[in-house]
Design goal:
The structure is a homodimer of 146-residue chains. By secondary structure, chain A is of the alpha/beta class. Chain A contains four helices and five strands, in the order αββαβαββα. Chain A has a five-stranded mixed sheet with strand order 2-1-3-4-5. The interface between A and B is medium-sized, with 28 and 28 residues.
Chain lengths: 146, 146
Amino acid sequence: MLPNEDSYYMGLALRQAARALEEEEIPVGAVVVCQGKVVAKAYNQTEILTDVTAHAEMLAITSAAQTIGAKYLKDCTLYVTLEPCLMCAGAIYWSQLGRLVYGATEEKRGFSSLGKQVLHPKTEVVSGILAEESETLLKEFFSMRR
Amino acid sequence: MLPNEDSYYMGLALRQAARALEEEEIPVGAVVVCQGKVVAKAYNQTEILTDVTAHAEMLAITSAAQTIGAKYLKDCTLYVTLEPCLMCAGAIYWSQLGRLVYGATEEKRGFSSLGKQVLHPKTEVVSGILAEESETLLKEFFSMRR
């Protein structure tokens, strides 16, 4: 996987995050790529769905499994614009995800703050891809709210 | 809340777990009770839905929010036959659940094994309610699989 491929797919995840912003949801977007093919795109929909579990990653994992017809995402990469929370990290664990690429760091509720390996040992992790762009969207959201 | 009320509602969760067993799913069941009313019942459906996120607790939290028309479950109790995993504990955190009552302990992937407070500080936790009945169902499932 070349770095510019990661940027390309993270760009698609950012577009999802931008859609969330348009709909006044916390702007986080995700895409799942399996063997060079985008199999799921999603953005945070906790407000419109009245569902705290409707994070971008959760929707993307469920959607990817439907598309490929299998529960496990061993040969897939999940791109998400913000570091996953504990709930999403747990889902990523169960999915046996091959590779996780995230953008901005989530200091408060990001999974890595737990200081323990909560992901599957086989899941490769890359962070910081287009992090600034992700943070810009989040800042825009929270400044709108003030 | 009287102890026998907890047993009563956990009995309903066990019935959900028994349904999972009938459908050859790992037998875990959950119910959500808000102000004396059952607002959601669910059982693990990861196989039938081809979805690793379809744990009983996740489905119950989503369903409860739909029933009461609100994302947060501050005045609700979630009864689940097995200790929630990290994913479900994360969802319970986001739901701001008032009270969590679980049955059997999950040594490997239970949230409490993390040794940190992963739940919301306001969520009251009770464990061990009808734990043996829950374990019996789980043992039956795993013996069927051998």
